[in-house]
Amino acid sequence: MTDHDLLRAYLFDRDVDSLDAFVRRYQQSLVRFAAKLLGDPEAAQDVVQETFLRVARHPRRLLKVDSCHNWLLRVVRNVGVDHIRRVTRQRRHTEAAAEQVTESHRQRQVEPSAEVERAEIEARLQDEIDVLKPRQKELFHLKVTEGKSYREIAEITGLSVTNVGYHLHQIMRQLSTRLRDAREELS
After folding, report:
1. Residues 156, 70: contact at Cβ < 8 Å?
2. Which label site among 53, 76, 164, 184 has the fewest CB atoms less than 10 Å from its CB?
3. Contact call for residues 17 and 5 (beta carbons, < 8 A)
4. What pLDDT score was predicted for residue 34?
């Protein structure tokens, strides 16, 4: 059954099994995206649950879209951004302390060997991804993790395709520069 068939069955026949099939179809992808966006698997579950509650309350909205997956990703993004804003307001002082710990971790010297160097660069890459601004992190994960095209990312985020390309170029250049600096520090 197509997405729209499942939603119609739920909407018109109150077939909860159809809604359940629809949820199972996209849940894993949405949780993965939300977890990457938020950096918190538990919060990701909450965000995705809220997204599916919106589907259950207003299934007609999805009957009007071409790609249910892109619509769901956009809702997850919006709910996730709201979550990030709430958490940011509540934990500003905690983040400042965490940044100090992260900075001291970066300054530690590690004896270079192929395995240790690779692990250090992977950790550094994750650190650099973690400190990206929420919009940058979102674009990065939509492109790299979800494999979305610029057009799809534009649809999900509300940016223009050109803007998506520009931002992704800037993000990749920024990450590349920081990782090159990390390799030089290890040498």
Report:
1. yes
2. 184
3. no
4. 94
